[in-house]
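Input sequence (108 aa), recorded before submission:
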Amino acid sequence: MKITVDGQVFDYDAGRLLNTEAIALQRVMGMPVADWTKAMQKGDALALTGLVWLLWRRAGREVPFDDVEFDLGSIEVEDDEPAPEPEKPKGPARKAATPTDAEPATAT
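Predicted structure, token format:
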């Protein structure tokens, strides 16, 4: 996925987190990584700051956690995976029966 912060775009793989990154995040935020991911989904400012701090570190920008400052409203997340297309019906198309296609009723 791509995450934009203050106009700068970062590639982010939510499934990849090194143990050293997890330890560093836990130390600076005071919460386990599992709580961090839940807090990010809720829009927690401390958790989002942790995300930006991690993005910056991965990009080579070493900034002390307490010095990370950005516009919370500037964060945009773009999923790399396109939305799945609706499933198409399988087999040959069938014409729907209409009243004129039905056989005439016979009187008994």
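Checked by second reader. The first strand starts at residue 2 and ends at 5.
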